[in-house]
Amino acid sequence: MNIYTRTGDEGMTSLKGGRVPKDHLRVEAYGQLDELNAFVGVALTHAAEDSYAELREQLQNIQHELFDCGSDLAFAEDKLGKVTYKVTEDLVLRLERWIDEHNAANVELRRFILPGGSALASALHVCRTVCRRAERHVVSLARSEEINPYAQQYVNRLSDYFFVAARRANGLLQVQDVEYARSAVVFSRKEKKE
Fold first, then answer.
1. Where would I find the beta strands (DSSP E) of the chain?
2. Could you report the per-residue pLDDT of 139-179, keeping only the tens digit for each?
3. Is residue 192 over pLDDT 50?
4. Which DSSP state fits 64?
5. What are phi and psi of 20, to 5 degrees?
6. Nearest in space to 128 (alpha carbons), one of 113, 140, 142
7. C-alpha distances out from residue 16 to 70, 121, 134, 140, Å
8. Mean pLDDT taken over the chain
9. What are the beta bridge partners of residue 20?
10. Which of 21, 35, 68, 141 has the fewest other C-beta atoms within 10 Å?
11. Which domains does the chain have, with CATH numbers?
12. What pTM value is reported for the model?
């Protein structure tokens, strides 16, 4: 298999159903997801400890699902026809469950925190910020072309996942999150009124 094909030498690339410029919104969107996937791989290198087994398994699943998201975005608009997407509502709902589980296990958040703590938490905060950038590109694409709406929802939930997973990674090693020094108390769990 040749790694180089020379077919992109003039700035064009292939999508499912046709060719587009390499700076096309679809290429930019799935390229951002590819970059995010690489950072998830970096995070996984910091997740070798036994206490991280659950996070490691989740991150490995997320890597496959990011490939699925990229695949769902890689269609030439004029050739879409009937498309069977890979990212489904079930994947979004599962991410929400993971977010809720990690959030419930985390120490209550009262102030803004700085990215950092353990090596895994730091890597997950990088994933969070790259995910937000990727989401902005997916949103731009969705404004101009048809996309799988669940892919957009998945990427939106994923940045929330990375935030709570980073805090969970710190908690599992008993490393405290570093609060932003000038932050007021901005978060509180609402008490149920009787």
1. 12-15, 18-21, 113-114, 178-179
2. 999 999 889 999 999 999 999 999 999 999 999 999 999 88
3. no
4. H
5. -140, 165
6. 113
7. 12, 36, 20, 20
8. 87
9. 13
10. 21
11. 12-179 (1.20.1200.10)
12. 0.88
